[in-house]
Amino acid sequence: MSKFIASAALVSVLASAPAAFALQPSAIPETGKVTKAPVGSTVTIESTGKFGNRYQNYFRVAEDGELEFVFQDSGN
User: Where in the sequence is the signal peptide annotated (predicted)?
Assistant: First the structure.
């Protein structure tokens, strides 16, 4: 029975490993519309997550001026 518990614990640790590299939603700022950036261009917004980590968030300008989230870089 202890082998089963140990293997279940190992599987749960390995399954949660990709979560360490997942997006940090708290670091993605609320965005509005932009008026001076051309449609299709990329906008970079630096932000800080809830644990003080700095992130660079990349957005693409849509036809209506909304910023669409593209990528997040932790800079590590």
Answer: 1-22
